[in-house]
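Memo to structure team: turn this sequence into structure tokens by end of day. - J.P.
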Amino acid sequence: MVELTILGNYGPYATAQGACSGYIINTDGFQIMLDCGHGVFSKLQKYADYASLGILVITHLHPDHYGDIYCLRQALKYQMREGKRKEPLYVYLPEGPHPLLDEVKNWDDVFTVISLEDAMKTVNDFNLFQLRFFRVQHQLPAYGVQFQRNGQPVLTYTGDTGWFPELAGLCAGSRYLLAEASLREYEVAERGANHMSARQAAQLAQSAGAENLILTHFFPENNLHQQQREAEQNYDGKIYMSGTGKKYILEP
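Reply from structure team:
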């Protein structure tokens, strides 16, 4: 079975009870974490076993996607010191000049860092599943992630991105599309280079042939009911509004 759990779904800051970007894919007991933004580590402890994480992917180096990696590092350091975890966690990170990169690379007692630039050059095959990475459009180097089983796309996560012509092809054929919907529609003209609205996310799902759409990365002040209606007007499939603790069976 493959299950997706939402740990956090806000950006650039969270609501009082929420958290920024963070998601867990559990595939037959192996846990893959996508992003680790502000507030995510506390939710991780509630909904998953952080000590048994297998892979962490940080899609880009904005704090609402990596902020709680500091908490995770300290927690894993303790687990390894106590003998409760044996191996460092594989962490996929973008390259580029950023203070976080130097810090994380120096934490080699708990993290083994893999460059997303290198990883995107091939399909990363872990036998039970495959991960494919692709560049998206954002203020700084940013990546989408596609989770596959037997070479078939099950979940594609856009990360933070504006709409661009090649995006539908990169997301094509997924059973589930986890897509950012940061913008209110009137903001697209000014900020659409780096983020999408619910309408754009829905049109992306329609063009990519996704069977299901999960909207995420909401600005905390947005009207989510309005965003859902905008999505429903532009997509024929099933639409889900993400929320902390929500779970989706991606594959029985």
